[in-house]
Batch of 2 targets.
Target 1
Amino acid sequence: MADFHQNGNITTLHNLRTRDVREMENELSAFASTRNITLILPCLYSELEGDALHNILKELSEVKYLHRIIIGLDAASEEQFRHAKEFFKALDQNHIVIWNDSPRMLALGDRLGALGLRPNEQGKGKNVWSSLGYLMSCADSDVMAIHDCDILTYDKEMLARLVYPVANPTFPYQVAKGYYARIGGEKLNGRVTRLLVSPLLIALNRVIGSRDYIDFLRSFRYPLSGEFAMRTAILPDLRIPSDWGLEIGVLSEAWRNLAPKAVCQVEISDAYDHKHQDLSADEATAGLNRMSTDICKAIFRKLAADGTVFTPNVFRTLKATYYRLALDLLDSYCSDAKMNGLNIDRHTEERSIELFAENIMRAGQVFLDNPHETPFIPTWSRVHAADPSFLTDMNAAAIADEAEY
């Protein structure tokens, strides 16, 4: 995707293949001498047994500009936590594995529960939120980056390109969102972005009219990427969604809190592949079925908060408009795949579109039935206001777990 197109809403930083990554890393090392850079890795224990993480650690062990790596470990027993600590010793940098299911961390969760501030759902959103809390408790980083632990095509240039826009003190960016082409196994991937988010945003523009928020989301080439970097000053007031709307939720927070010139997207890879979710057409609480519903709810909630009025008739019209647009875009994707020697299973793609159309209605009904639902985890500013010693105690718990097990 080596072009130089700018959309006029946010800055796009391309990879024009004119710069050696070693030169960029040298600059990052210079930046890191005055502004510490931390990487957060939200991780399920099962990912230690996958194909991606070994290579990710190998690549990261060569990165010299990181101040700290924080691994948020979910779904792990005590024995698995001990194994994870050994596994991540492959990292040369200062790092810590936070056992989110430890007795100490669960006790801290009960403490939040007594205040009415406990996160509602387990998952990536809570993992990221907890890791951000630990990062803030350390109070020694100026820049943070997050990426997933299932990236099969990972190399250290991804991180360098992701973090550079917010680490460079001469740049104005507070948030950088990674983007890339989702291809792998001779297939065009990225179904939820291609077949749900893109046509849904176009359909919303047609049904409810132009909105600045919709234009902002449409500016991102891959809005569902799990890779982003931020300057840490904005973290205390960041509202993290507790469901699978995490990536859309973070972009929504950037739109709410920052000027467009403070947000950019950066091309971090020519080809990106990771673990693929099943469609799970018969199970509404799993796979792309649940993900698509949560993403729709996240978009509808943000538009409603900005003054959009939704009714059952609006959602019915939106579903019909989306369905036609998604099929039209599928024609374009099929041509693009053919041009590049890639495969698309048209039957499976159309089944996905049919499911996503139904989930637009399902998400709309959930919103109408419970318009006051608060799906966000409380901000760390609110937690600190309610319990000023919580972050300090969380830091101590993580260190105690590290020492004991």
Target 2
Amino acid sequence: MRRTVRGAVAATACTVVLATGLAACGTVKQLSAAEKVSDAFGNLEDSKTFKAELSFGATADEIIAFDKLASSKGKPMERKAAELMAELKISVAISADKPLKDIEAFKNAQSGADPLNSLGQDPGFDVSYALSGKSGKSYAELRWVDGNFYVKADVDSIAQLAGEDAGELKSAAGAFPKVVQDAVSGKWISIEGKTLKEFADQATKAAGAKKGAASAAPSVDPKVASGLVNTVKDVLSRNVTFEDKGKQDGADHVYVSAPAKALADDLLKSIRPVLKDIPGMGDELPSAAPTEIPDKKVGLDVFIKDGSVSALSFDLAQIDSKLPAEAHLPVKMTFSKDAAEAPKAPEGATKFAMSDFEEIVTSMMGSKMGAKGGATTGGKTAATPLTAAQVKELVAKGIPEAQIKLLNQGGMTYEQLKMLADAAG
């Protein structure tokens, strides 16, 4: 169902743009329905806790029926695939010791700064992401708790989702450190915030060295980011309309709509002058809206309870003008300011350290280069110690000196390290 996949991506992007713009949109308050929606999104940010869930608002039978309409000449969707689509949900839960709008990570994201710069600045900010089934089955989960990162995945189940077998991956894990073996066995893995920051810093330095540029990553001027937000707000105020639909299941119902192609064209035309001041962004936008965008109005249902957004619903069928009127495939996102439970650090997690990363790289390079021959010690190729000149050359390629020496001691030769540096660039 390739068309549906493309539609899901487009619909998600549409929802994010609308939600982000409306949350801060003060220019549309001439309409009572628009004011209601704008305030409802803003009230979510005033909370210290937050939970959201994204899923298909359709049964397996409804998904199969949609697929028949969307791809009448293609291979019919298997019931198992439809049941998985109907069952899966993505959720996020956030807990903080102050309103979310005051969290440094949120402010950095809004200003265009690197979110990793805020690691450790908000010790009271915890978040979890989960891919699970509506029946309660857990497929994968990520947590950021007390400044540390935790991850767990059911490799077998995820492979089944993709129609693959995880047996080969699990067998290959035996050649890697214990942390990798634990990961593919479905155990919790932890990474300290300082280690994650070190990964990011080394990657930035390596990229800077490769380009002959400064090691610091380019940042976006907050004034430029603010101008971009204001431009989007202005475009939305010209194109988006709001219709108060009254009450539905105890919630205020507002229908938000916009002419899809006209909105996309207006956005492209308006934000191009702003993006020219953002490094690497000026030439990334197309000159015109993609032809796949339908030349018609598309709408988003917004539901509000107790002054805050409680749910969004978007029909994927809207974005394909070739589908018949009876085709429907709703995607639903629910919101709550009261997260059921604050994310917690799992017990017994296997710690992932820099030395594990270096051992993994060594193992991967050894498997690729081992065929060239050479004496081995303890299952690893015995590497000749590097000369001072070789170390200097590798540092110039972007690999930190301490890491070079550790990888060399672990069995990586000068030639292997050069290949690693070239691959990273």
